[in-house]
Sequence to fold (305 residues):
Amino acid sequence: MQDHRDKQQAVATRASEVLAELIARPLTAGLYLVATPIGNLGDISLRALSVLARADLIAAEDTRHSKKLLTHYGIAATLTPYHEHNAVKERPRLLARLRAGETIALISDAGTPLVSDPGYKLVREALDERLAVTSIPGSSATLTALTSAGLPTDAFLFAGFLPPKQAARRVRLAELAAVPATLVFFETAPRLANSLADMAEALESREAAVARELTKLHETVTRGTLVELAAEFARSDQPKGELVVVVAPPSEEQGDASDEAIVAGLREALETESFRDAVRSVAENLCASRARVYELGLALTRKRD
Fold:
């Protein structure tokens, strides 16, 4: 038992030494995109802590929320709000400070900045002015939910929040139905049941998962088909907390395009693409097997010749 405690203490001591070494180094001027925990404060990286401790200014979506993290780690920093409602006014001020050689850390309320937050335009303008931009990786609700869902991870599409109104939401889901990748959505608790019902209608009985309160004490990942999940959340109390919905890609049957549709797609693609690129793009767009598209493509080119 004592040997086990000694090993634990050695890890804690070394982590403290590494953090001290990082903090002792000067921080190069520029904008730092710092990922923060999505729930469990222990998920922050040593490098992220070192940047937050050394930055001249920390721009945060909600300074009151971010103070909890900084206070937890004893970081005395100057905070300024930067969110969708004040971004137009605050962006020039932040850029001016970057031009003056200061270091600014940009953080979101939780997770990686620029994912469903207003940091994108700040980064674009900073890069346009050739100001240094550095990303400090870490927590991401998107990747945490994806890897917890038990669904394919080789190709995925983060689709953000679906439209709040049903008509627009159904249109968006129809656009995504043929995407040959796992889909990841953010959703609010009040809209979850309705969104799942629309997903079940548009995407049919695909496997899916609803992840709630990831990394927090009451974390849950509910798995099933979209039809099953829609029924379950329709009859249960409204869930609380942050929600991510992960949906499997279409099956071969769901993406089984007709020969006529494939040939039509090939005719159009071959006007601007090589044979190989046309086969790949049509197979991806119509969720058809590449071998099948290739055979139809050969037949089409033979007819042309």
Summary: DSSP finds twelve helices and ten strands in the chain.
